[in-house]
Amino acid sequence: MSQTPKIALEEHFMHPDFVQYFATTSTNISPALFGKAKDALLDFGDRRIEAMDSIGVEKAVLSLSGPGVQAEKRVDTAVQLARKVNDFLAEEMAKKPDRYGGFAHLAMQDPAGAADELERCVKDLGMQGAMINGQTGGTYLDDDRYAVFWERAADLEAPIYIHPNNPPERVHMYHDHPELYGPVWSWTVETATHALRLVFSGTFDRFPGAKLILGHLGENLPFMLWRLDSRWEISNRGDMTLDLKPSDYFKRNIWLTTSGMCDDVPLRCSIDAMGQDRIMFSVDYPFEHPEEAGKWIEAAPLSDDERQKVCHQNARSLLGL
Ligand code: MN
Fold first, then answer.
1. Is the distance from CB of 158 to CB of 122 less than 8 angstroms?
2. What is the reported pTM?
3. Active site residue 284
4. How many domains in the chain?
5. Structural domain contains residue 1
6. pLDDT tens for residues 127-177?
7. How much distance in Å is there from the Cα of 307 to the middle of ligand 1?
8. Is 4 exposed, middle or buried (CB count within 10 Å of its CB: 0-12, 13-18, 19+)?
9. Separation of CA 25 and ligand 1 centre (Å)
10. Which one from 229, 284, 304, 305 is the annotated catalytic residue?
11. Is residue 260 part of a domain?
């Protein structure tokens, strides 16, 4: 079968020194998958390349499997380890420059340092942006302390991918429902809320060039755009103001990937809600099956133009590939 060329951008790896942080997510997925995933994550060779080739992925933009140093309490340690893993990723990218890109891993505990490290990763190491695993020490990216970071990201035109992670505390509504805590549901709530904090805080008014990527076809948000606009008008919002309607930021500052979502209905919804230039194919390797994602997107109800855009053209233009 001929394959549409693809770029995939939620594709994870592991560094041996980060397994302890990765293990903090073991409460979210079954022990059997956790063990298998670790081996695949550590491989940068035949196994990963074969998985990419099997579905026509020409380039995978790699990112450390979370939460990484965002779970580290000591700021100096977080800063040093983030730098170490970025140098490590850059070495792997250099071995296969046609096949691997990279998203920087950043110690958000130090916002100005994270801005500098993002710049180093983009300008010196050839990376395409950064991936941030949700909150850091209970702080979300709309906090004023991150203005220095967003300013630099916008200047660099570097997209920031918010990847799910757990909230700082386990809220009562998940009591007695461990299955809802993690990828089934709580990660969606957490990550969608994080994105909405950025929209409603006016981060994209202050930094109109900032670029945000969300996985999982936008964590349910494309379905909600009309209601976000309509209810914002009547919300108890104090003196908050926005230059644009909430939905407008989704069509200017936000892009989505199909990571971990192989379903026509949310794909069509996302394209129809946000436009055909903002949706990008991804797998979420090794947590999802490449062949399932590849077969799905080839057969999905898209026009030829839409399929080319989703599979590779949108990622090429957003990431400057
Ligand atoms: Mn992922």
1. yes
2. 0.97
3. yes
4. 1
5. no
6. 999 999 999 999 999 999 999 999 999 999 999 999 999 898 989 999 999
7. 22
8. middle
9. 12
10. 284
11. yes
